[in-house]
């Protein structure tokens, strides 16, 4: 909720006069500005003494909003982005790969649903090992049920001659975080988002896989009740990696 | 006012025939399969409701392909509208490969039909591995893909700002795109209810200043509807929105009762069905008033055995507004194509 006065530093048109005018219509932040009809606002501005300046202020606000908007992509650009950035990561298991038509796709959320003890955690760990070893990527593993086992992951890594060094290298790319409630998970994810945004150098060990094991144990305490299916009230944007949520 | 001016004022501007031909030329009827039962005009808002997964996005993609294809190209008839499609992805789940595959399939099919080689169609459905016979026009494919414009929004404030900015800058952005064709035919929204829960949460953070509009669910949806109305006025387009039902039906036996009653009163009163929509409506009234056409899709109980002996699930598509007595049944097969099977009554 950015209050309008923070914008004055860079845009001198949004001065106290403009802000008073906006406040008289109940607009104190940028979000309030979005909720209002701009034509109506411009018509009200006509009646004021400094009409031109106010209307210029409205135009500047609109251009500031436009800068934040994403560009329109057409179908060919989407395809190029897919081929260039969104690779398919093998999940380590041939059967699952053939089911997923190649493996886990970057930019997509894959959900594993199953009753307890059906091998979901094993699949997550195998996928982590496969991504860390074969695709040279980092893995961010969010564990909610104390089921993460580094030894098991080491077993998944097939080694050649210098097995120990390889294992150490691969395991160092997997970072495990234990969370027990949804709010800690939000914090962790936000921290991850900030870290990814501020990452200046895109080295080869970039984050490729985000695993949440398991999301149901975080959400069930909040949802409770019966008959109400809802989506998780968290919107996180991870465009370059893959989620698996078990 | 002199007599001359008075007469001029009373004289008509155009006859009804002229008006009809002008309006039908500007805002023509669109027939988008599989929604072809009801012709759509610019200004119509279609809402497709169904639980997840019921092939709603698939329907959108098929309708988009009909929109972006040209009517004819190099002598082959494709039967499209050659208009742009603006796809607002609120679910952020769109897979461009599905669009690409379906488009290639359509181009191949139309090419084969156009060249009188329709008997090769059956072969191509069976031998899906045979890639050597791809004879579609690459240039046509590229120009069609360029007519598909995509935008993603991660929360309702982003959606609001996108709609506001699009209203002022859509023409300019289309020209930047160098799209082949400059008129937007359809605005598609994937999952209009995507931010329902987040908006409901934020309305509990309502502020207590008097004349300030709070960021509540109703206010946000009202503003979204307002912005879309403004967009629709300037660019004559059809809006198609999908909506996932988020409340489970508490009494699933109701559906069987409904089926039985609908068979019995075939020629009976159709309005009795309209009184009970088969899902619980969660969108605010401003959105409900905005929608002009409603479709409901549900999974059919019996599965379909296709040629490949695969158990594909069938879906039933029902028009709720305008109420039609027929129900379409379709399956989604291997090539991600929606094939109509039969019409149920």
TrEMBL record, chain A:
Task: Keyword check for ATP-binding, yes or no.
Answer: yes
Q: What is this protein called?
A: RecA family profile 1 domain-containing protein
Could you tell me the Gene Ontology terms of the biological process aspect for this record?
Answer: DNA recombination; DNA repair
Family matches, as InterPro entries = HRR_RAD51_Paralog, P-loop_NTPase, Rad51_C, Rad51D_C, RecA_ATP-bd
Q: Which GO terms describe its molecular function?
A: ATP binding; ATP-dependent DNA damage sensor activity; DNA binding
Q: Give every RecA family profile domain span.
A: 85-246
Q: Which family does it belong to?
A: Belongs to the RecA family. RAD51 subfamily.
The keyword Nucleus is assigned to this record: yes
* Gene3D superfamilies, sorted: P-loop containing nucleotide triphosphate hydrolases
Organism this protein belongs to: Brassica campestris
Subcellular location per the Swiss-Prot or TrEMBL entry: Nucleus
Keywords assigned by UniProt, alphabetized: ATP-binding, DNA damage, DNA recombination, DNA repair, DNA-binding, Nucleotide-binding, Nucleus
Taking the first listed entry, what is the main subcellular location of this protein, grouped into a coarse class? Answer: nucleus
Can you quote a single GO CC term? nucleus
Automatic annotation (TrEMBL), chain B:
What's the domain of life for this entry?
Eukaryota
Q: Where's the RecA family profile domain?
A: 20-246
Q: What is this protein called?
A: RecA family profile 1 domain-containing protein
Q: Which GO terms describe its cellular component?
A: Rad51B-Rad51C-Rad51D-XRCC2 complex; replication fork
Task: Write one Gene Ontology MF term.
Answer: DNA binding
- Native source species: Brassica campestris
> Which is a GO BP term held by this UniProt record?
double-strand break repair via homologous recombination
Ranked from the top, the taxonomy reads:
Eukaryota, Viridiplantae, Streptophyta, Embryophyta, Tracheophyta
InterPro entries associated with the record:
P-loop_NTPase, RecA_ATP-bd, XRCC2
